[in-house]
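Handoff note, outgoing to incoming analyst
You'll be picking up this chain. Sequence as last confirmed:
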Amino acid sequence: MSTPTAVAYRRLFARPGALAFTAGNLLARLPVGMAGVSAVVMIAGARGSYTLAGAVSATGLVASGLAGPWLARLVDRYGQAKVARPATLVAVLGALALLLCVRYDAPDWTLFAAYASWAATPNVGGLSRARWAHLLRDDPEARHTANSFEQAADELCFMLGPALASFLTGTLFPEAGTLAGAALLAAGMLVFTAQSGTEPPPSPRTRAPSPLRAPGIRPLLACFTATGAVFGAMEVVTVAYADAQGQRALAGVVLALQAAGSCAAGLLYGALPPGPAARRLRRCLPAMAALMTLPWLAATTGSLWVLAGALLVAGTATAPTMVTAMTLVQERSPEGRLNEGMSLVVTALLTGIACGSAAGGWAAEHLGAGTAYAIPALAAATACLLGRALRGAR
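Most recent structure output, in case you need it:
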């Protein structure tokens, strides 16, 4: 007998083209979770420096954050396929250039230049959400189901991506993760953009003011930046910690447990009565700050599996925080500028991830991988302090 949940998703994917563009979307989204671990393992293994690996990863993320709003405006103006296909080509060529530069011992500056091309990767999750919004504009209940699926897909890709990248780089050759990610991105975007029947039409420019001028948006973006630093530092430090334990191939599995904790907490959190989003965020941020101290404490045991358990628990704080903050951005973005508001969120997150990656790589190399877990804990505490600026914003 079918459950109500199964019936809702069956209805969702029964719509013409929905299953096909979702399959392409998932293929293209998986490399987003693979890219960081693949680049760090590949560069650190070839050059022997986590500082360099973290800095290169940070450069790519900063470039992505700067290019994201510009690409989003082009998509809104010209359509998904016309912008996403050439942008994907640039990103894939950049990934291949990075692989060749590492493989043939090119100068360090070439690594930064090549990985910066990854900034052309389209916001695959945003493109998919836009299609659902277009297809389900007259069906709020189905649109809610689609949004829930997209959130689960994000968590799934960040669970599987690092694990797949670590497996490929650890069991085949160091460049395998980057090569596989480029292939998946190209194939997935071709499948996704081929579904022209589900593509939303281009929209004209709006005269509404920038989301940056909306009350409360800037403190929210600051919180997103600090939260991004948690993610970036945690990824690099965990790879370094597993490497120090002689278990580099398990780094992705350990990071996947953190994403699993976030996914489970997000599903449970979504079943709770919502209440005012600003009040919920002021509760979520201190919880995240407290739980992010657990990996730091667990690292002192020297056990990768104790650390894995701590990351699983710590991850339960991130999804509620992200969901609540995203809700506030949606509430406060001016009408007609929601996509730009969400792209600014991505920029803030990527900026934070870049800073966290660089700081985590430096701390792992100079202070030790265990001590370096203080970086994500400090970033979470910073997000908590910045969240206090939201108290008076309406």
